[in-house]
């Protein structure tokens, strides 16, 4: 694994990156608690992918670049500008939920303010939409870059091939990401695809693909930084496969102990990216254990406050049902 220092980021930026990783983890833990005590209906989480998502999102200019995420990308959406309260408003299904005003399922992130385009539950359709967004940058001669993500199972949907083919033909400023966590619900990768990896598919569409260890903050950051620079220069799309883990069940509605062995789960937890980044921060003397503990307290306080505030907000009223659904 590369050192954090090799990322070229300042000490402040690296500490901020870790704070985002921690925020993603603690907020997701809160979302699970809320489903378990019956206050919310659903959660699907990115635990195990936080380091990869922070490093990925940090490589973009959030004021102008566009993001079409998928349901596990909460931590990336936080880096892109959404707040813990925004996420909780969606989870509680409140009127002020920026993603859908409480109309959509939780975890379907969107924010007009932050150039995050809300997506469908039909997996991978965001990839086709993303080609449209990226094509508009080219037609309008704007230099914004578009990022879109999906899972490795969903990457086998037909429209992903259509999206990549069109992006390759038009040399769109678009970065495709596959977050490969080795499961599509209960289906392991051996039953999903026969190639050695997923990034090699890019060659068939005329652009470069790479596979990166999602626990390696620096490697992920530098890979995206170069891809974003190239896309902004007009050099076309890239496919980046992030090898991540899924530390939880698929969602709040299943139990992975049914289809994963105890040993497999224990082994995966030994490589929790949050723990690995903490070790790096200490070894490279960015933070002490005491400072890490203090930050944890601060993040927990922030999430407690955001939970109380979001829960106290008004629910949507029936008379507003069709507001925001159709264009005026
Ligand atoms: C077109 C379509 N088929 C099936 C589903 C049901 N579904 C939701 S998530 C999922 C698994 C996706 O696995 P993967 O792409 O690996 O992403 P992960 O959840 O592992 O991040 C499935 C089959 C769906 N939402 N849309
Ligand atoms: Mg998967």
Automatic annotation (TrEMBL):
InterPro entries: Alpha-ketoacid_DH_E1_comp, DH_E1, THDP-binding. The keyword Oxidoreductase applies. It catalyses: N(6)-[(R)-lipoyl]-L-lysyl-[protein] + 3-methyl-2-oxobutanoate + H(+) = N(6)-[(R)-S(8)-2-methylpropanoyldihydrolipoyl]-L-lysyl-[protein] + CO2. Its EC number is 1.2.4.4. Residues 305-328 are annotated as: Disordered. Residues 21-316 form the Dehydrogenase E1 component domain. Its cofactor is thiamine diphosphate. Keywords: Oxidoreductase, Thiamine pyrophosphate. Gene3D superfamilies: 3.40.50.970. The keyword Iron does not apply. Belongs to the BCKDHA family. The branched-chain alpha-keto dehydrogenase complex catalyzes the overall conversion of alpha-keto acids to acyl-CoA and CO(2). It contains multiple copies of three enzymatic components: branched-chain alpha-keto acid decarboxylase (E1), lipoamide acyltransferase (E2) and lipoamide dehydrogenase (E3). PANTHER family: 2-OXOISOVALERATE DEHYDROGENASE SUBUNIT ALPHA, MITOCHONDRIAL. This is 2-oxoisovalerate dehydrogenase subunit alpha. It comes from Candidatus Vagococcus giribetii.
């Amino acid at each position: 694994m590369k050192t954090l220092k090799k990322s070229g980021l300042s000490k402040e930026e690296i500490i901020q990156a870790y704070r985002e990783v921690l925020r993603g983890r603690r907020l997701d833990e809160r979302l699970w608690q809320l489903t378990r005590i019956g206050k919310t209906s659903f959660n699907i989480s990115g635990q195990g992918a936080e380091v990869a998502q922070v490093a990925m999102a940090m490589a973009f200019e959030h004021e102008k670049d566009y993001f079409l995420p998928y349901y596990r990308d909460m931590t990336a959406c936080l880096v892109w500008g959404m707040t813990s309260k925004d996420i909780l408003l969606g989870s509680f299904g409140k009127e002020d939920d920026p993603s859908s005003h409480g109309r959509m399922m939780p975890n379907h992130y969107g924010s007009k303010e932050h150039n995050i385009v809300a997506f469908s539950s039909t997996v991978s359709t965001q990839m086709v939409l993303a080609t449209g967004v990226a094509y508009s940058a080219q037609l309008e001669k704007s230099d914004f870059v578009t990022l879109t993500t999906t899972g490795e199972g969903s990457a086998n949907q037909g429209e992903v091939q259509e999206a990549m083919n069109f992006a390759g033909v038009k040399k769109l400023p678009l970065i495709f990401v596959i977050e490969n966590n080795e499961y599509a619900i209960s289906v392991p990768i051996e039953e999903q695809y026969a190639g050695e990896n997923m990034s090699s598919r890019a060659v068939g569409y005329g652009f470069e693909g790479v596979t990166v260890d999602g626990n390696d903050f620096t490697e992920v950051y530098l890979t995206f930084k170069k891809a974003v620079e190239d896309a902004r220069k007009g050099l076309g799309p890239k496919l980046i496969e992030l090898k991540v883990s899924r530390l939880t069940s698929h969602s709040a509605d299943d139990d992975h102990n049914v289809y994963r062995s105890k040993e497999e789960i224990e082994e995966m937890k030994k490589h929790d990216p949050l723990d690995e980044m903490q070790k790096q921060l200490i070894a490279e003397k960015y933070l002490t254990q005491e400072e890490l503990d203090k930050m944890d307290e601060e993040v927990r306080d922030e999430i407690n406050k955001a939970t109380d505030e979001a829960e106290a907000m008004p629910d949507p009223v029936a008379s507003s049902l069709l507001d925001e659904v159709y264009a005026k």
